[in-house]
Amino acid sequence: MKYVLVTGGVVSGLGKGVTASSIGVLLKACGLRVTSIKIDPYLNTDAGTMSPFEHGEVFVLDDGGEVDLDLGNYERFLDVKLTRDNNITTGKIYQSVLEKERRGDYLGNTVQVVPHITDAIQEWIERVAMIPVDGKEGPADVCVIELGGTIGDIESMPFIEALGQFSYHVGPGNFCLIHVSLVPVLNVVGEQKTKPTQHSVRGLRGLGLTPNILACRSTKALNENVKAKLSQFCHVPAENVVTLYDVPNIWYIPLLLRDQKAHEAILKALKLLGVAREPDLQDWITRTRVYDVLLEPVKIAMVGKYTGLSDSYLSVLKALLHASVACRRKLVVEWVAAGDLEDVTAKEAPDVYKNAWNLLKGSDGVVVPGGFGDRGVQGKIIAAKYARENKVPFLGICLGMQIAVIEFAQSVLGLDDANSTEFDPQTSHPCVIFMPEGSKTHMGGTMRLGSRRTYFKVPNCKSAKLYGNASFVDERHRHRYEVNPDMVPQFENAGLSFVGRDETGQRMEVIELPSHPYFVGAQFHPEFKSRPGKPSALFLGLIAAASGQLDAVLQNYGHASKLLPNGMSNGKPTVKPYQNGNAIKSSNGSLNGVYSNGNGVHY
């Protein structure tokens, strides 16, 4: 097994996750099998109880693991299925060591950070690296490890020590360290400054790790004299100093790495030059070509609670982007804070209220994503009502589906106090209830989590067609509440169809409004399995409906690739190929390929 470690210096948020994912793509394109591990030095056992404002979205895996959003990047880029053990946290390591200590596994020894914690980290990495994640037999060829945080953080010290020992343990030719650092440009002089990276590498070397490759984040490509300076002071060959400059879409990053021959430096360090082939990135090149020619916009209103941080809905954004590219439309996301649609805002901040409604009314489609808590719920109900009554394409995810059910009960069934017991425990019409197997005392890992099977009970429904006329589908879940099965006959008699259910038929999974162009809700999270080349079916349906292409997609059983819309001719983009970064242009307002109204925080 070969290992590639990605660390970060100077500041956090440089894009280590995207860099690690892109390195994986590049190695996979060289014919190697790749797996990934993310190390998060925080004490939480997993990301499940952390606020999206604190750490971005919680990504859910097939096995129910609630993990860091970077694992979502790995899955999307590499098209693999990771496990909960692919996310290592300080909490997991200490928990495993303390469990061994309680069992007496250490035979009365004093349990210490070194060697017991550091040994546990190394054993975990070696064990998880051997788990196949690409659907094939046997272990991968290369494991890409991302160390979260910044070099010098106190909380990451045990991991740094463990990885230093690990590099010695696996030996030369089996370990490659890539250090992602910042080369800022001061506006006053316009000069690229190398000192922060020099200090970061010095700190890294002082902790026992020596970088093989420097991946330098900057606003533009590094000058040759800057590369030479970094090479001299950081003891890294000049050809191993790679620039990761700002691009309009993260799909360009694997191409940037390839153009700078980063794969050759990695393969040389891992002694794989004679084994791997030249990278075949044709799919990525085609994808970036198609993206470059997208002109016709499709506006989607994202009505949520955490709109102040776009990372809170990262997978939803990516799923919308995948579907938009498949439908050959430029995605424009209109961020609408759910609370801004409520009557109380009209009284307290009329301008905010008016702006929110203008964004909603100007959109081609509406998404109400998942969430917890009662803040903004009324605004989400209002958004669902607007979409239903005005025939605007709508997709409700998890809580968003429950919101659609509550709105239908209130507006169509005339049950004014209908609600979820999450928001009103005393409601006389509980159309959404707490699941029997849930826990009300422990929050972490107690929800209905992971991949579950949904059976389509209405074969001719839009959802089943979008999934390729499938009779069932496996999707990932994360919820404590569900639609009250006792009220389902009442809903269906009024026209709301529960087209997807679990194996018992008692748990509602997918809703549709047959009388509406596209009004769909899913209890699961379809965004977690969306891929750049394989968009999520329900998101594809939303974008297709919002851009007037739904009938064509449904006729082709959900395969958008059979369409030949703008910029396409016989399935091939009618644009020039990507070469040496020449196709990359700045795009004001672009959010990794997603255009935004600016209400969210861009990264």
From TrEMBL:
Output the PROSITE patterns linked to this UniProt entry: GATASE_TYPE_1 (PS51273)
Aminoacyl-tRNA synthetase as UniProt keyword: no
The segment(s) forming the CTP synthase N-terminal domain are: 2-272
- The record's top EC class is ligase
Any one Gene Ontology molecular-function term assigned to this protein's record: identical protein binding
Q: Where would I find the Glutamine amidotransferase domain in this sequence?
A: 310-543
**Which Enzyme Commission numbers does its entry carry?**
6.3.4.2
Q: In which pathway does it act?
A: Pyrimidine metabolism; CTP biosynthesis via de novo pathway; CTP from UDP: step 2/2
What CDD domains does this protein map onto?
A: CTPS_N, GATase1_CTP_Synthase
Please name the Pfam families in this protein's record. CTP_synth_N, GATase
List this protein's GO terms for biological process: 'de novo' CTP biosynthetic process; CTP biosynthetic process; pyrimidine nucleobase biosynthetic process
- Reaction catalysis annotation: UTP + L-glutamine + ATP + H2O = CTP + L-glutamate + ADP + phosphate + 2 H(+)
Q: Which domain of life is it from?
A: Eukaryota
Q: InterPro entries per the record?
A: Class_I_gatase-like, CTP_synthase, CTP_synthase_N, GATASE, GATase1_CTP_Synthase, P-loop_NTPase
Keywords in alphabetical order: ATP-binding, Glutamine amidotransferase, Ligase, Nucleotide-binding, Pyrimidine biosynthesis
- List the HAMAP family: PyrG (MF_01227)
Instruction: Report the protein's function.
Output: Catalyzes the ATP-dependent amination of UTP to CTP with either L-glutamine or ammonia as the source of nitrogen.
What the record says about family reads: Belongs to the CTP synthase family.
Q: What is this protein called?
A: CTP synthase
| Organism for this UniProt entry | Populus trichocarpa
